[in-house]
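Give me structure tokens for this 102-residue protein.
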Amino acid sequence: MYRYRPLPLTALAVSVLPGTAAAQGPTARISMADASSRALVAVPGVVVAQELEREHGRSMYSFEIRVSGSPADEITEVNIDAGDGHVVAIEHEHVRRSGSRG
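Here you go.
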């Protein structure tokens, strides 16, 4: 009779991840929550959008922040390095009425 033995999590990860899209996508050593906190320290306001992306060969969190008291068409984008958590860039953008930025 076959006896069920669960695989250790590491064995499962090794057998599933190589060659999958997840293994080739962006990776992060800090959490989204930690990165968001760091972005809000750099630019106080309200996060209206966030994502983990790969730019220029490294993983970065991107946060769009609406700063209190700023015009409704202004967004500040803060990029946080997903590996070590440092602020990579801060850019001020204007949102056009059609929703695109410029």
